[in-house]
Write a structure and sequence with these properties.
Blueprint: E1 5-10, H1 22-40, E2 43-51, H2 56-65, H3 69-86, E3 93-96, H4 100-115, E4 119-129, E5 134-136, E6 155-164, H5 170-179, E7 184-185, H6 187-198, E8 204-205, E9 207-209, E10 225-227, H7 229-234, H8 236-239, H9 248-255, E11 263-268, H10 272-285, E12 293-297, E13 300-302, E14 305-306, H11 317-323, H12 331-342, E15 349-350, H13 353-381, H14 395-402, H15 406-427, H16 429-435, H17 437-461, H18 463-475
Helix pairs in contact: 2-3, 5-6, 6-10, 11-12, 12-15, 13-15, 13-17, 14-15, 15-17, 16-17, 17-18
Bound molecules: zinc ion.
The site of zinc ion has 6 residues, from loops.
């Protein structure tokens, strides 16, 4: 038996208490489509995700509610996972940073870095944004506040903390960026992180005094400190594979002893530094192999503005799914379609209720939904069946997905829908079959076969819609209701 090629992909782990916003949905859906693509092209895939359950924000919220942080996160994780289910995210592993196994991993990561001389203790004072859970330099602040979290006051932290010797990894990181020009996608983001690292790295604090912020992984051998949330959270990319146990899943999916090792992390552009420089240096320090690809998403705006409650332009993933509940049996696929098709793969995008409506009508109601009805009507009326059983992915989609260009890939799929529509308009098989039955049957058979190919491709992006079309073809029936309706 030939071993399958291996592929590891992970999202970032959002805070379990955050309202999952459209940017999270974007990251989940893109990583999910890539995972489905790899599986369908013969890879053995591990798709990791999970929830970040430590840090000052969670501690503060639990205190406000008057319950322990652990009870607080336990009460939230079910609802958090529900979002993944509603979005139909095909993850293989879900790691919580409060899982015992993860805590052991974070402590092992600490011990390895400590043993190799990359952790030391010093006094420091810093300006800190609790929103980002990051120290901010003066140049990163705008009018004294974090531009991403203008409503949160910047905290001044002054204490004795443990530090990670990030600065010593400057050259090793720059070497990696040079040797692997596609390590960060898109290249503009690689240039951005390279310039950041070239300016020189400052060692970063990796602990907090327990008396000020007790909610974190205990620092091994020092009861006064807990780990800084990023040092803990980043380790989830390997604790999700059972690390520090180096046998089993970790050995299989992270080490992947092959020339074409693929270890992919998806994240938003606000995570560039953590993923492509901090975490990579932690891996170098602990003598573990680095990731091979960091794919960076842009932000989603609405009507030219950042989404915010005060502007009133927030589009929440759950409300968008609900909005289409009456019009289709596959409402999550509407959201998945919009995120994959209407937002650039790597740059910022803009969607509004109007743009979503237009897209829904043009591509789903009048596009794939209508096409499926037309073809299944002809096929069932004239008793044309498909004998195909192979899953088909078109070469253009393979090329786009291998470059993580999910938008280009789904656009190609929609192009196939339009081409097939045009073919039906031009050849009019429903008319031909009345005057030349044999020729008509051949044309309908071609339409059915092309529709089947489209459905196979569509399954990567809109899994239940694609599967439903395939079911109709296999069972030789019309969809019970139009797939996408205007109601
Ligand atoms: Zn911030």
């Amino acid at each position: 038996m030939q071993d399958k090629k291996l592929f590891y992909i992970t999202t970032t782990l959002p805070y379990v208490n955050a309202d999952l916003h459209i940017g999270h949905a974007l990251e989940f859906v893109r990583a999910d489509s890539v995972a489905r693509f790899k599986r369908s092209t013969g890879y053995d895939v591990f798709f990791n995700t999970g929830s970040d359950e430590h840090g000052a924000k969670i501690f503060e919220s639990a205190q406000e509610k008057g319950i322990s942080p652990q009870s607080y996160v336990d009460s939230l994780v079910g609802g958090f996972k529900e979002v993944h289910t509603l979005l139909n995210i095909s993850y293989d592993g879900f790691i919580r940073t409060t899982d015992t196994q993860h805590i052991q991993a974070a402590q092992e990561m600490w011990n390895r870095c400590l043993d190799r001389g990359y952790i030391y203790k010093k006094n420091y004072k810093t300006k800190y944004c609790v929103g980002c859970e990051l120290s901010k330099t003066e140049s990163e602040l705008v009018s004294g506040v974090c531009p991403i979290h203008p409503n949160r006051e910047i905290q001044i932290i002054e204490e004795e903390n443990y530090f990670f010797k990030w600065s010593v990894f400057q050259n090793e990181l720059l070497d990696k960026y040079t040797k692997e020009p596609e390590f960060v996608i898109p290249s503009t983001r690689l240039n951005e992180i390279r310039s950041f690292v070239e300016r020189g790295l400052e060692d970063f604090s990796i602990s907090r005094l327990k008396e000020k912020m007790p909610w974190g992984v205990p620092v091994p051998g020092d009861d006064d400190h807990v780990m800084y949330v990023w040092f803990d959270a980043l380790t989830s990319y390997i604790s999700g594979l059972g690390w520090p146990n180096e046998e089993g899943k970790f050995s299989k999916y992270w080490l992947q002893e092959s020339q074409t090792r693929e270890v992919v992390q998806y994240c938003g552009k606000d995570n560039l530094r953590q993923q492509s420089a901090m975490w990579q240096a932690m891996l170098m320090a602990s003598e573990l192999p680095c990731s091979t690809r960091i794919v960076i998403n842009g932000f989603i705006m609405s009507g030219g503005l950042k989404m915010s409650k005060s502007v009133g332009n927030v589009l929440s993933p759950m409300s968008l799914i609900q909005r289409y509940n009456q019009q289709t049996e596959y409402p999550e696929d509407v959201l998945r379609f919009v995120l994959l098709h209407d937002v650039p793969s790597f740059e910022d995008g803009d969607i509004t209720i109007e743009s979503i409506e237009n897209s829904y009508t043009a591509h789903l109601v009048n596009g794939i939904g209508n096409l499926t009805n037309r073809i299944m009507k002809m096929a069932t009326t004239h008793n044309i069946i498909s004998l195909d059983t192979e899953k088909y992915i078109s070469p253009e989609i393979i090329e786009a997905m291998n470059s993580f260009d999910t938008k280009k890939a789904i656009e190609h799929c929609m192009g196939d829908v339009r081409r097939l529509d045009k073919f039906i308009q031009e050849t009019e098989p429903f008319k031909v079959v009345k005057v030349n039955e044999e020729k008509g049957h051949i044309l309908i058979g071609e339409c059915l076969s092309d529709l089947r190919n489209i459905a196979c491709n569509l399954e990567l992006f809109m899994p239940r819609t694609g599967a439903k079309i395939l079911e109709c073809i296999e069972e030789h029936k019309m969809p019970e209701k139009a797939l996408f309706r205007r109601e």
